[in-house]
Structures are given as C-alpha cells and as structure tokens.
Task: structure prediction
Amino acid sequence: MAAKPRFRNDAVAASDATPTPVPEAAPAERRHPVDGTLPPLKLFTSGLQHVAAMYAGVVAPPMIVGPAVGLDAKETAFLMGASLFTAGLATLLQTLGVWRIGARLPFVNGVSFAGVTPMVAIGKDRGHDGIAVIFGAIVVAGLLGFLLAPYFCKLVRFFPPVVTGTVITLIGVSLLPVAFNWSQGGNAEATDYGSTTNITMAAVTMVIVLALRRLLRGFLQQIAILLGLVVGTLIAIPVGITDFGALGDAGLFGFPTPFHFGAPRFEIAAIVSMCIVMLVCMTESTADMLALGRIVDRPADERTIEGGLRADTLGSAISPLFNGFMCSAFAQNIGLVAMTKVRSRFVVAAGGGILILLGLMPVAASVIALVPLPVLGGAGIVLFGSVAASGIQTLATAAMEKGENALIVAAALGIGLIPIAAPDFYHAFPKDLLVVLDSGISTGCVVAIVLNLAFNHLGRGPERELPDGDGANAPERSRSAAAPATAH
Result:
C-alpha cells in the first residue's frame, strides 16, 4: 500500500478514523539495551558465561548443608541438582517477570550463602527431619518477605550515591575472598590447598582473561570470561587438577521430586532464624539492584526494587517444593555485566533456562563442574574486582569533599570489612547475631544509611541540605555514574 501524505486538505482527512501516524523511530531504536535481545547463538553463549560464573556459588551451600545434616553423597548430589533447578526458576522469575514480580533486570538469583550457618545449626545430624524443618522455615520466611516487599522497597530513598557507592564497593571486596579461596583449591582440608600449582593456574587464567579482553573485539570480547574458563580448563587437564569423576557417576536425566525429603515441618526457633536471614538477603538484594541499575544505566526505583524483592522472596517460598534453599541475588554476575557491557536481561534469562536444564540433566551439570576451582578463581578476581571498581566510580559522584561524606564512607567500609579482615572478630557474640554481623555487606550498608541520615539529614533545614547527590534525593546527573552507557 502506498504511503499517505502527512498533510491532506481534502474532506476525507477530517473524517478518517484511522489516519496514518507521523513516521517515528522504530521501536527497536527506542528500546533500552536491558530489553534488547541477541541472536540465538550469542544469547546462549552469553547466558552460559553467567552460569559458569555462578555455578560454584549455587552448589556450594548444598555441599555444606547436606553432609552436616547427615545426608549421604547421593542425597547431597540430589540437593545440588535441586538447587540448580530452583535457581533457574528464580532467575527466570526475576528477569522475565510476572505481573509486578521481578526486577526485569539482568539479575541472577541463586542459593543464598547467608543461610548456610543457620541451616546447619537447624538440621545438624537430623537427617531428613532436619531438611524438612529447614524447608518449612524457608517457606514461612519467603512468604513473610513477599508481604514485606512493598514496604521494604521504600528504603531506596536512603541510598544516595554516598551509600550506594559504599555498598557496591563492599559487595566487590566481600566477594574477592571467595575468588582467593577458589584460587587456592576451594577445600582448606585438601593436601594441595594453596599449592603453587593451584595458584599458578589461577594466575594463568586471569592473564588469559585479561589478554582476551584486550585482544579480541566484538562478541568474542564480551564472552572473554567463558573463553578464558574453557582455555584454563584445557590447560588444567595435563596439569592434573581436572576431576572427571563426577562426569562418570552422573545420570543422564533426573527431576527434583517435590518433597523428596518429606513435607515441610515448622518449628518456631528455625522460622525466626530464617526470617532474620531473609531480611539480610532483602537488604543485600536491594543494594545489588541499585548497583546493577547504575551499571546498566537503568536506575532501580521503588517499583523495580519491589518487583525484585518479590521475585527473591517468592522464589525462596517456592524453592523448598523442589528441595531447594533460599534464593537471593548473585553479586558476582553483576561484575560480569559490568565487565562485558552486555546489558540484556534476556541473556540472563537464557542462563536461567540453562540452570533448569542442568538441574534436570545431572550429566550436563557435571560438564560445567569440570572447570577446576583455581581456574574459576582466576576469572573471579577480575569479575569481583569489576564490582568494586563500579562502586568506586559511584563514590566519585558523591561529593566526598562536602560535609562528612568521607567520614561516612570511611566508617562504613571499615566496619563492613571486619568479617573479611578478621573473621573471628565477633566470636563472643550470640550465634543469632552472627547472621547479620558476619555479612560485611549488611553491616556496612546499615552503617552507611544511619550515618548518612545523622550527618546529612537530621538537624538540617532545607537551606542547609547538601547538594550533588549527598541527600536522599540525588540529582539526575549521578544516575549512571557507576558505569558508562554502552551498547551490546
């Protein structure tokens, strides 16, 4: 059909019920990169890269909790598959969204490590009964968090750049010890833990990743982490640190049968403990969403955070149905987004789909598990360091020379680093408090918020309110300071 002219003087124009609209930019040109898609192959490989970056973090909690409660190796492996499956469900819920559930950002969800200590305390040596009590407590905590999400999200007003920059920096720094542990071998009881072989492999992998990022261009540069992991794993085979045992023992198909360990059981003490963990996870997820929003140049507002928290908590409430644990944000993948500049949420959704397949196909999960921890640690140093760098960029917009902002950052970082620099610092405190105190992200976040209120808000009239991002309402110019806007 021939195009109609934009202006018509005939009588028909006045009565035309469906005039041809003025030509506008194509929707794809207005689409934010977060909502953009990639060709199928690029979508899969980029999603696989996210899975490779977070796989160890997903399977580590069940590897610890399973033996602690008295499960055998086969049942522990079942828990690991279930955790991969539920992490995939939670990630799809977070990235694609349903109704007002989901942040609709490239936000990866997986098993929260914050709950490991209380879960071990709840179920220690109780076998299936212990797992059933843990699952019952997680269900209640997840439902409570879901109800609190509309109110909890309003905390975003207390996260100006001086707070978000501090928290983002703490997220990256708090993750670095994980990479260091992987680089040494991951198991402190092993005879080769910290050996020159392990650390050399980590260093080689890190150099490979950096070299690929420097030498490659386009899409290959974006998947430099994945390529680095593949090359590092291939080098590790003749070195002798690649374990093929799990590949031979894994079955082809498997499904996390609902309530495999029995129906959830509800005990008050366990419920209270896991509710505290849920509040900690919600605090960390809020900080993670703010960090990711800045990195992808789509600042997270109250509605985004509310949707993200609902996905976190609903995913946690549903997870025990399939024998999974509490789900929360995976900060290491934020570093991957910052490094690769691939901002599409559908890439992470593809990663969620891969996680589901890994949970249903143990043999496929075992292939991913072939990546030695030292190799993963070398790549992790770059990833987690990228998160800390993004936090430093955000702090650069926080007007550190004004008021007491430098003091706020100093105190919050100092207290937030205590669990990292001195892990036994709080050893004399009640165990219930350690759920919060052992999380440097949570303690640093609370300190930054309280000090920002004390120094920049309380006792200040409107005429003395600090400008340039120091108050609760930061100016528009600092929205995307954490990372420059980049295309795919």
User: Anything to note?
Assistant: The chain has a mean pLDDT of 80. The CA atoms of residues 171 and 268 lie 32 Å apart. DSSP finds 21 helices and two strands in the chain.
